[in-house]
Amino acid sequence: MAKVFLSYSHRDKERAEKLRDDVRALLGSVWMDPRLTGGQDWWDEILAEIRKAELFVFSLSDDSLNSEPCRGELAYALALGKGVIPVRVADVSTLPPELARINYVDHTDGNENAQRDLGAAFLNPPPTAPLPDPLPPPPELPVSPLGRLADRVRNSERLTPEEQKALAFDLETRLGTDDDAEARSVLHQLKERGDTLKPVADKIEKALSEPAPPDRRDPPPVEPKGDSTSKLPIVLAIAVALVMFGFIGTREYMRRSSLGACLEARLSSLKVDAQASRVVIDGASGMTDEMLEVRSHKSGFFRLMAQPKIFEAVSACAAEKGLPDPRLIAAPAFQVVSMRGDPLSSAEVSIREWGACRTDGGGQCVLSERPVKPGARYQVDVSRSGYEPRRKELPAAAFGDAIIKLELKRVLP
After folding, report:
1. Which is the most buried residue in 141, 158, 229, 241, by most CB within 10 A?
2. Model confidence pTM above 0.70
3. Domain housing 301
4. For residue 401, with 0-12 CB atoms within 10 Å meaning exposed, 13-18 middle and 19 or more buried, which class applies?
């Protein structure tokens, strides 16, 4: 039976486990990583399992499309020529180009025929090519946003007072989420740094001493009926929080909070759906006094910001709150393949505004980093000896994807 690799986001774990069980019932052999995070050894093991797999099943959701490990796994599977079967397990706002042309299986709770549809997909699976020789370069170990915060706390020689407050704020927002345990560990390390200010350390100690709040995705608990005195502790807690905010809060904190409210109102008036609005608001909350640069590796946020109406909404709110204009920054990555899907080395990919790059043995190359105009379209030229040259127009949003695949047709003798 075919060996299947199942790629999924930790936020979809329960749905992915149900999918794993259904795939296992059909094919018998499924590899699904239980840890979801780790160091280089963990990442090397995952890449080795992808190479051994005969089919690559991508658990499709907005969370998986916004997950760096999931995007890295998918890009590597495509570079290796694996047969890819996307299986939707939750809502998806926008499909990236490499998945948009592949029919996906609906495995959401609302589909009564999910198992039947899954079985039909495996009866006629996409072909998997032999491993290329040489192998394409492996994707780098993905680092989560929390991992980047942890790296700053552990490895920065000195943190300014403003940096300490911003780090403490970002880490505290992760308490009560799936990242709770790691966020608490990094907060403790921040508190124990020799240069951490006492007010910041005191606030961290208070946050760590309180019980973890429920996951923000869970519905709020129903409040029991009773007399108004039962609400007194809540009122006092709010008052204490406001005092603490006034004591160590920063102008930055206030502006970021009001920025979210501004964006919520503007995006609602534009009829942007709730899921996309949350991605934009969460991403824009990272604005600082420096230029906000939305980079292409933040694919979900980047693709949304590439839409002119959303970019203009963020720009307007930023200006209203005294923050700088945002910028989109991209370093487009391409893979050039034949019509059969074989990687093509020594192909030249060029965009007039960027320059050109030449593909390696895995058919991949990356252009240099530069600003991107929201809503703009870019003309891409691809050429290689023995193949028909190709010209393709790509929207700015396409550069938010891990790898853009381009196909060339061989010149007939």
Report:
1. 141
2. no
3. 250-328
4. buried
